[in-house]
Design goal:
The protein is built from 1 helix and 14 strands; from the N terminus they run αββββββββββββββ. It is mostly beta strands and 223 residues long. The protein folds into 2 domains: 94 residues, Carboxypeptidase-like, regulatory domain (Immunoglobulin-like, Sandwich), CATH 2.60.40; 86 residues, Immunoglobulin-like (Sandwich). The N and C termini lie far apart (78 Å).
Length: 223
């Protein structure tokens, strides 16, 4: 009897081990489609992301499940593997100037977001459209005396017409930063440890044209 119990436990373990990944695969459903820009062209460096939507029967908040951005292929096509649920599928192409729609500052009603209810059947033929073409801001922060780069400095990019809509990015090991922004009036300010806050041109608004790539230099004074 004891040997039979041991054998049963081994069998159950092996079954879970072998069928577990297969079972997980069966629990996910294929969702595929394409990404286009406003003119219907294929973007070169687009990504898509499935954002889980909260339902009355679920706990947590909208987007509380971690789904990563997935790159499209050379034809702008994508395929996602998603468990059952309701999702909004969004696209971005920051490298070419299309902002990330996840940020409030980049909210764009012209962008097409596909909402899907994922069940057992595969979903095909979705179309997700990028919003309006924006611009790219990059630059660097440095100490005004030594001209050395300020690592981990914070750059705040804010909608000039809505103080609640902003994003904060941090400089890398070279004191550099980069962010894709919409074509709207922006106010840009910076801070770094041990230095005084500094606004770009004393708070003057910055507006990029479509496809523009602008470089900004910040020199921060020590406190």
């Amino acid at each position: 009897m004891k040997m039979n119990l041991v054998a049963l436990r081994i069998f159950v373990f092996l079954a879970c081990y072998l069928l577990g990944p297969f079972g997980l695969a069966l629990a996910a459903t294929s969702v595929s489609g394409c990404v286009r820009d406003a003119a219907g062209n294929t973007p070169a460096h687009a990504y898509v992301k499935a954002i889980p939507q909260k339902t009355e029967a679920s706990a947590g908040t909208v987007g509380d499940l971690p789904n990563r951005w997935i790159a499209v292929n050379e034809k702008g096509e994508f395929e996602l593997s998603l468990p059952p649920g309701r999702y909004k599928i969004r696209a971005k192409d920051e490298a070419d100037g299309y902002p990330d729609p996840m940020f409030w500052i980049s909210a764009d009603p012209t962008a097409k977001v596909s909402e899907v209810l994922v069940g057992e059947q595969a979903i095909t033929g979705l179309e997700v459209r990028l919003g309006a073409l924006g611009g790219i801001i990059d630059g660097n922060l440095q100490d005004s005396l030594t001209h050395k780069p300020l690592v981990g400095g914070k750059v705040r990019i804010q909608d000039a017409r809505n103080s609640d809509a902003f994003v904060e990015v941090f400089t890398d090991s070279s004191g550099r930063f980069q962010f894709t922004v919409p074509c709207k009036p922006l106010v840009i300010s910076t801070t770094a440890s041990g230095h005084k806050p500094t606004a770009f041109q004393s708070g003057e608004q910055v507006i990029l044209s479509s496809g523009e790539h602008r470089h900004l230099e910040f020199e921060l004074e020590r406190q």
